[in-house]
Structure formats: C-alpha cells, structure tokens
Amino acid sequence: MAAARFKAAMDSVAFRFVLTMGVVNLFADITYEGGGSINGPFLGTLGASAALISIVAGLGEFLGYSLRAVAGHIADRTGKYWPISFVGYAINLLAVPAMALAGSWQIAALLMLAERVGRAIRKPTIETMLSYTTAKFGRGWVFAVNTALDETGATLGPLLMAAILFFRGSYSMAYAMLLISSLLALASLTVARIGFPVPADLGEGASAPERDFTPAFWLYMTGGGLFAAGLMSYELISFHLVSVGLISKSWMPVTLAFATGTGVIANLLLGRLFDRAGMRIVLAAVLLSALFTPLVFSGSLIAVLIAMPLWGVGYAVQDTLFKALVAGILPDKKRGLAFGLFYAGYGLGWLIGSVAVGLLYQQSRPALVVFAVVAQLCSLPFFILGHRRQRTRLTHI
Question: Is the predicted pLDDT of residue 1 greater than 50, yes or no?
Fold first, then answer.
C-alpha cells in the first residue's frame, strides 16, 4: 500500500514540482549554510570584533525576514513569481562564493547582508508556488518534503566546509568551492521553470478560500514571533559551547550538521503528523523546542548532544509547521504577501529575542534560559486561540 502511494505521488506532476524545488533548495542550502558555518571566524580574521559580527548577523536575519512582505506583495501584484524567484536566488547564491574575494570585513559584511536580502526576495514566491500543491498531498507533507531536502543541503554544506578546513584549505578556497553548488541550484531552478511554467495550474492550496486576512492569521503571526524570540541562533550556541570548552572549534560545523541532520527527520515526521493531527502537533513540537535552551546551557556535553536534535525540531516548527498553518488561511490573490507578512512578524520577534538574549548572556545565563523558555511557551495560547477562531470561521462558511 505504501509503495503504491509513493508511485502515485511520483506520477503526479504536482509532486514532481515539489521534489524539483526541493533539489533547488538542497543545492542552495549547501551554499549559504556552508558559508554561514564559517562567516563568523572569517570576519574575525579580517579584523571584525565580536560585537560587529553579532550586529551584522542580527541585521542580516532581520532583513531576511522583514523584506519578505515587500517581495511577496510585489509578486502578488505583478504575477511575476518566476522572475522574482530568479533574482532572489541569484543574489542569495552568488553573494556567498563572492566572499572569497572580500579583502575587508566591510565588504564581507555587505555580501552577508546581500545574501540574506536575496533569500528574502525569493522565499515568499517559492512558498506561494508550492502552496498550490498542498490540497492533494497535505500542507504538512508538501512543506516537509521540500524542507527535508533543504535541510539535507544544510547538513552537507557545513560538513564540506569542515572537510576543506581540516585538510588545511583556506577560507577563500572554501567559499570559492561553493560556486559549484550555487550554479547547480540555478540550473535546477531553470529546469523547474521550464518544466512547471505555471504552478497555479497544479491545483488550489488553501483549505478554504479567504478574501482577506483573518483574525487567525494575526494570532498565528503573533505566536510565531513569540516562538522566534526564544529560538537560539547557531552563532550564539557555537560561541557559548566553544567558550566554555564543551566542543572545540573544529567540531562546531559537525555539530551543526548533526543538528540539521536530525532536523531532516523532524521535518518529515512532523509534516506527516500535522496532516493527521493538526494543531496538536504544533503545540507538542513547541513544547519540545522549549526544552532546548535549558539543556544546551546546562554545562553537560551529554545534555548538549540531547539538545541539538531539539534545535532541529525548533527549525522544523519554523520551516514546516508554520508554513502549513499559513497555507491553510491564505487570502485569495495575496498568498505571497501572507507568507511575507507572517515571516516579517517572525523576524521582528527574532530580532527582539536576539537582542534580549545577547544582553542576558553577559549578565545572567539563568535569566537567559528563563526568557527563552517563557517566550516560546507564551506562543501556545496564540496558536490555540487562532485555531479556535479558524474552526469557528469554517463552520460558518
């Protein structure tokens, strides 16, 4: 029975589109996650201070989320989803190998910001196109498959960087090698454009048509922002683990690969379960994610090894479950704007949380742990209330 379902999925044009875009994102993640695993130390070699590295990383993430609403709105108004996607991917991918030519931390910082801006441009357009396939295969499963391939690339990229540095390669050589995966991603994107020129023809994605944004959408966005405020960045995690001597610098890319590798499994499992149990899976995953911070700051290597899969769960919530929630309440003809707005709110929560966590790390690590856990737990009432509002609306349609 399972084999028959798999064959039926592979025979579907819609599912082939999902897999093709997954391959695009696999190569894309090899590029920018590989670069991301060495950006901090590379900036340090160019003379940037820890404060500057933190500011650049935080500003990049904020731009990467906040500009999605603008990109999504433009895509909805113009209908140019594919051209906008190509522009976003080109900036996103080519900025990373260009780091090999950076001769100062200022140039490197600008390239890091450009990479995040490119990602912001293409993210809502791709999520919009994928949303048309969700009616047949389930919102959770579509985004889970795409994200699992995405996270596979995020696992391979840091491992590639670790291997190059292990064999005494330079940072410039490591960045230059990522040009290969950048070109493969753009080639795969071209294949997707030729094979699936009008993704909207693959089927409707929203579970119920909406004319505009509903109260459930804003409640989900608020919950997402609170969740993001308590989600730790890998830059801070790696800095902490190295500074306290739990993990050496050379093993940090491997640790990231371990976390993202478990995230692949988490995405597939949570995506499938979401299509069966809905909101209950979101709530359970948020609770699991909230356990990460106490474990990673416990001072125990065993606790850290237990914590890293929970970090993968947290990013599965962000990359699969939140997209599945939004896909269920997409307003008609505003899909790109909806995804962009949601993740703009998410990015604002991330920025506020990053500032708070950075300050608390210097003052009181127990207070940091309390802040992160409470922020994520505070998201639960908003998800529950949003779900109730959504169910009430559906009973009146």
Answer: no
Q: Which pLDDT tens digit goes with each residue over 182-238?
A: 999 999 999 999 999 988 777 654 444 566 788 999 999 999 999 999 988 776 787
- The packing angle between helices 335-363 and 365-395, to 10°, is 160
End-to-end alpha carbon distance in the chain: 35
How many angstroms separate the CA atoms of 31 and 93, rounded?
A: 7
Whether pLDDT at 245 is above 90: no
Contact 13, 202 (CB under 8 A): yes
CA neighbor of 88 nearest in space, from 146, 133, 129: 129
- Catalogue the E-assigned strands of the chain: none
Grouping H, G, I as helix, E, B as strand and the rest as coil, residue 12 is: coil
CA nearest neighbour of 116 among 44, 52, 56: 56
Long-range contacts of 339-342 (CB under 8 A, 24+ apart): 339/68, 339/72, 339/123, 339/124, 339/127, 339/128, 339/131, 340/68, 340/69, 340/70, 340/71, 340/72, 340/73, 340/123, 340/124, 341/68, 341/69, 341/72, 341/213, 341/221, 342/217, 342/220, 342/221, 342/224
Q: What is the mean pLDDT of residues 27-55?
A: 84
What average pLDDT does the segment 123-130 reach? Answer: 89
Instruction: For residue 373, give the nearest of 298, 305, 287, 310 by alpha carbon.
Output: 287
Residue carrying the six token digits 């950048």: 182
> What mean pLDDT, rounded, does the chain reach?
87
**What pLDDT digit, counting tens, does each position of 6-23 carry?**
445 545 788 889 899 999
Are 143 and 259 spatial neighbours (Cβ–Cβ below 8 Å)?
A: no
Domain boundaries, the chain: 12-395
Domain 12-395 part of CATH 1.20.1250.20? yes
Q: How high is the pLDDT of residue 57? A: 79
pLDDT value, residue 395: 62
State the sign of the Cα–Cα–Cα–Cα dihedral 167, 91, 59, 261: negative
**26-40, 244-258, 284-298: least confident range:** 244-258
Residues whose CB falls within 8 Å of the CB of residue 333, separated by 6 or more in sequence, listed in order: 76
- The string of DSSP letters for 156-203 reads HHHHHHHHHHHTT--HHHHHHHHHHHHHHHHHHHHHHHHH-S-GGGG-
301 Ramachandran zone, left/alpha/beta (phi>0; psi -120 to 50):
alpha
Spatial CA neighbour of 390 closest among 338, 330, 332, 319: 330
Over its C-alpha atoms, the chain yields an Rg (Å, rounded) of 20
